[in-house]
Each structure stands twice: as C-alpha cells, then as structure tokens.
Please model this.
Amino acid sequence: MRHRCRTDAAEVAELLITELVTNALVHTDRGAEVHASLAATRLRVEVRDYAARRPRPYVPTADDGTHGRGLVLVQALADDWGVDALALGSGKVVWFELDGRHDAAPYDGSYDAPYGGGPA
Model:
C-alpha cells in the first residue's frame, strides 16, 4: 500500500488492522484470520473471528486506560466499515475500507461524533 497510496493512509491502515486483530484476540478465545485486498488505491481489510457475538463499540472514559478505543478509531478513520455475521456458529467478519488516493484529503486528526449506531 505504501507504494501506491498516501503515506498517512498506509499508517491509518496499520493502526486499524492492529486494533481489529487485538479486539478479536482479546474478546474471543478462538483466534482470528486477516484478509486484505488492495484494488487500485482502495484497501479492504477483513478480520474474521469465530465468536458470533457482535462487537459493542463505546466511548471509553479516562478510567479505561488504553482499553475501548478500537472500534471508535475504526469508525473515525475508515472511509467505510461494518460487521458481517457468518453462518450460525461460524463467527463474524469486522471489516473496513480506506481510500488511499494521492488526491484524497488526508486524515486531519479529528473524527465524527462517537459511535451512535452506524453500520455495526
């Protein structure tokens, strides 16, 4: 991705991948699989785990330390994201997409209002 897209888009991708993988490993006990595809300058990353329970994003408090920010970051930084349930007992896929075009506006450090519904 670094060769075809903006540098900041690649850095955001790294952050979001680590957040989703960490969530899958911390909140389930069955491992995770990562799939990434880059078409032109559009990156799609899917993290599959084997727990059917849907993620519950929330805005962390100061007392949470570094816990609870993963899905808030995904919502804030990804161009699109969601959760797809798999066949009964097969788990789910949490995914995000990023537009890495050189002419796209880089992330400015701000984000929309905290999770209040959305695609999840």
About this structure: Residues 109-120 have pLDDT under 50 and may be disordered. The beta strands are 32-39, 42-49, 80-85, 92-99. The first helix runs from residue 7 to 27.
